[in-house]
Amino acid sequence: MKKTVITVIGKDNFGIIAKTSAICAECNVNIVDITQSVLGDMFVMVMLADISAANCSFGEFSDKMRAFGKKESLDVRVMHEDIFNSMHRI
Question: If 43 and its partner were Cys, which of 12, 23, 78, 86 is the partner (CB 3.0–4.6 Å)?
């Protein structure tokens, strides 16, 4: 399984989880785990997703998420598991 961590942070609004999940479904990315919280008026979410069966490149998926974040005024980051694996090898 190839994994990615997706973080979403911004002002709370309706449909953030649904819209993020829709992009994952469109790209055939499976959400393995999700945690979210509303802190005051701020929304914070972390998703662990399996990108093994993705129907687009990691770069394309990341770009779609980043465009979604820009449109919705959210900070959306997509980090490949290789980043974390490399950090632990140093």
Answer: 12
Of the candidates 73, 45, 44, 49, which has an alpha carbon nearest to the alpha carbon of residue 62?
A: 49
pTM for the structure as a whole: 0.91
**Segments making up each domain of the chain, as ranges:** 3-89
CA dist 72 and 78 (Å) reads 16
* Residue whose tokens read 């997706």: 6
The rounded distance, in Å, linking the Cα atoms of 55 and 76 is 20
Domain range 3-89, CATH architecture:
2-Layer Sandwich (3.30)
Q: How many CB atoms lie within 10 A of CB 52?
A: 11
Q: How confident is the model over 10-20, as pLDDT tens digits?
A: 999 999 999 99
Q: Token digits for 41?
A: 């008026």
Amino acid at 50: D
